[in-house]
Structures are given as C-alpha cells and as structure tokens.
Design brief:
about 0% strand, Serine Threonine Protein Phosphatase 5, Tetratricopeptide repeat, mainly alpha, disordered N terminus
C-alpha cells in the first residue's frame, strides 16, 4: 500500500549565499560571545558593527530563533540609515550589500517560523537591492529564496519560474555548489509535480557535484530527495537506504531540521508498509524536535500522518483530532498543497463513518485546491475517494467519471517505464561512483 501523502514541504537548499557573503564566524563558547559583545560596543565604524551583529546572529542560522531576528534587524537598521543618507556610491554599495545579507537572513528566519508572507517581503526587498547593484550572485540567491517560499505554499509553477531564474544567474557565476543547489530545488518541484524521472536527473547531477566538493550537508539534502523518489515508486528498501544516509549526516552535524525531514520520510515508508506503531515512533520524534526548537515545517505533515495511522487502525476520533490540528497549521501557513491533502484525508475518514454528504463536500474541496496547485498525487487521491463516494451514493455515472480520472492519473504516477528509467539512472550513477573509487587504488 502506498502512503497517501508525500510531504508538501521539503528541506530545500537554503541560504548558500548567506554563508558565503561573509564568514559568520560561528561562536561556540560563552567567552567568544562575550568578546563579540565587547567588540560591538567598541566598534569604531558601522560596517564593523554590522559584521559583529552578523556574527552574533549567525549562531542561530540553523533553526527558528528570535535571537537571529534581534541581531539581524539591528544590522539592517544601521545599513538602512546609511542607505537613506546622501553618501557616496561606494558607501551605498557597501551598505546595500550588508542590507541584502540582513534581509535574506531575516527572511529565512520568518520562513523557518512559517511566516511566508513576511519572508517574501524581505526577499523581494533584497532582490530589489541586488538588481540595483547588478549583483548576479545576490539575485540568484533571492530568486531561489522566493522560489522556496512558493514551493512551500504549493505554488509550483511560480516556484519553478523563480528557481529557473536562480539557476540562470547561478550559471553566470563561478560557484559550482550553488548551481548544484539550484538543481536540487528545481528537482524538488518536478518531484512534487510527479515528473519523477526529470526530478531524479536534477538530483543526481547535483549530488555528483556535492560529492566532488565534499559538501556533506548538501549531499544529505540530495539523499532525502532521492529517498522521496523511491518512496513514491514503492521501492521502500532503497528509500530507507537514502533516508538513512541523510540521517547519518544530519545527526553528525546536529541539524535538527534535517533530522526531522528524515524522520518524516522514514515514517512515511512505514505507513506504506502498514507498520503504524513504528511510523508513529518516527513522527513523534518530529514532534519532539518541534517542541525543543520551534521548527514547524514538518508539523502539519507529521500530524496528518499520525492521523492517517490512527485511521488505518480504526481509531477515527483520534484520526480526526490530528487531521484538524494539521489543517489548522496548513491554513495558517497558506500551504494549499497541504490543505488539499488533509481535506482529502478527512473526506476518506467521513466516508468510512458513512457520512457521505460530508465526505463529498471535503473531497470536492480537496480536488478544487489540488487542481489549482497542479499536484497530481493529491488529485489522484481526490478522484479515488470521489469514485467511492459516488458509488455509495448510487450515482454510477459520476462514480465512473471519477474512476476514469483516477485511473488516468494512476498511469501517470506509477508505471514500469518510469521506474525503469529511474533505476537505470541510479545504476549508472552507482557504477560510475564505484569506478571512481577503484581508480583511487590503481
């Protein structure tokens, strides 16, 4: 049995530029923090003061933190003060570059807190400054960040448009790792739109670059995405292999958000294998991480998956409780893809409780939204439950119409030719990697 959902949110390659523009000099000890605060008070220039604020805030880049907002907003206010003054072009250039970094950092923090509209405000302002400076690296990063937000809102066509722009400018630069990061982001969109072979090609291309450069955490992001592909194609052993490789890297680097993504993927596999208690063990780890860190991106997916596990065990009250919590979060985030998935799950639950009127209403809502996002998997699920509902309501014509739509999408989503194309790319990738390793010993 296939899991009824795949996460509408995936950890995308975020903020490469943020780490490269200036070395944040991540502080690990209290004494280093104290020294930076002293340095901040003694700074003779605003540029050095801003950079110190970046160092203080940079400690919190890996997850939700109001502390990052505090330091980066202070840095942005100082930069904006100078930009508004009648100063020389060279100084304006310097302060706009600093402002871009602050804006992207603040935008990423709002993204982590699922404040998507706020994040877009900061990203677009950073993009405006980048265009004024004709800075292709900054423009590429800004386009990418906007694309990430749109992807998490289920606006896949808009997301793809911005990610393709990001890739276009990335190729004009000299950073191969950033080009690869853009490829991952584009691959994620094609995966969500069910173009699995296209997505897989983007992932492998990116993974080969990251392996060459030794970028472990970005390799982990690729492993996660590739795991998703194999999970969608019901190759659960290979999916678990890739999720495990990603988890090993994220654990070694202390990346809580990445670990949450891994738990989500592993949990989905065990849902598909009807191992509901094992699945919940993984989803409960996401709840733990969310409680400890404030990271919310996996929360709605996690809650609806827990709800699904209870539904499959026949505990409809618990299932409905978790679905409602998940729906509230997805609506707060403006995540149309997530809303459509949850409404479809609630429709199935109402159907099982013989409330066919409610089930029909929920299924139609799910289908309407999924057609807006053009996410085939969600439409597939909606047509399936609609066919079942119409049959129970003794409307064979509508049941047949929905079933034909469902069958057509099933052929698009799952077929042997598509899976064979993916496995051929996988075999070629593994063979080339083994050959490279053998060359090291000859």
């Amino acid at each position: 049995m296939q899991s009824p959902f795949r996460n509408s949110v995936n950890i995308l390659i975020v903020s490469v530029f943020l780490f490269l523009l200036y070395d944040p000099g991540f502080c690990q000890t209290e004494s280093e923090v104290k020294n930076l605060r002293k340095q901040l008070n003694k700074s003779q220039s605003d540029t050095s003061r801003i950079k110190t604020l970046f160092q203080l805030g940079g400690r919190f880049l890996s997850g939700p933190s109001d502390s990052l907002l505090f330091y980066y907003t202070r840095a942005l206010n100082i930069a904006d003060k100078h930009i508004k003054q009648d100063i020389g072009q060279e100084e304006i250039f310097t302060y706009k570059k600093l402002a871009i970094r602050a804006l992207i950092g603040i935008g990423i923090e709002h993204f982590y807190q699922s404040n998507y509209e706020e994040a877009l405000v900061y990203y677009f302002k950073a993009l405006d400054y980048s265009k004024e400076l004709n800075d292709i690296d900054c423009m590429s990063e800004c386009y990418s960040e906007v694309g990430i937000v749109y992807n998490n809102q289920g606006k896949y066509d808009q997301s793809l448009e911005y990610h393709l722009k990001a890739l276009e400018f990335a190729k004009q630069g000299i950073d191969d790792s950033w080009v690869a990061s853009c490829n991952v982001n584009i691959g994620n969109i094609y995966r969500d739109k069910a173009y699995y072979t296209v997505a897989y090609n983007y992932y492998i291309k990116a993974l080969q670059t990251f392996e060459k450069l030794g970028h472990k955490r970005r390799m982990a992001a690729c492993f996660l995405s590739i795991g998703d592909i194999f999970n969608e194609q019901h190759d659960f052993n290979t999916a678990l292999e890739y999720f495990g490789r990603a988890f090993q890297i994220y654990s070694s680097t202390g990346d809580n958000a990445g670990q949450a993504e891994c738990y989500s993927g592993i949990g989905d596999v065990y849902l598909s294998l009807d191992e509901y208690s094992i699945a919940r063990e993984n989803f409960n780890e996401i709840l733990r991480i969310s409680k400890e860190t404030g990271y919310t991106h996996e929360l709605d997916d996690c809650l609806k998956s827990i709800g699904y596990s209870y539904k499959m065990e026949g505990d409809y009250d618990k299932a409905n409780e978790f679905y409602k919590k998940a729906l509230q979060i997805s609506r707060q985030e403006g995540d149309k893809a997530g809303i459509a998935e949850i409404l479809g799950s609630m429709a199935k639950l109402a159907y099982l409780q013989n409330d066919f009127g409610k089930a029909l209403n929920l299924a139609n809502q799910s289908l309407e939204i999924s057609n807006q996002t053009k996410r085939l998997q969600t439409s597939f699920n909606a047509y399936r439950i609609l066919s079942e509902i119409h049959e129970k309501r003794d409307d064979p014509q509508k049941a047949l119409q929905a079933f034909k739509k469902y069958s057509g999408l099933k052929d698009s989503l799952f077929n042997s030719e598509k899976y064979r194309a993916i496995t051929e790319i996988e075999t070629k990738y593994k063979t080339e990697k083994k050959e490279q390793q053998l060359e090291l010993f000859t």
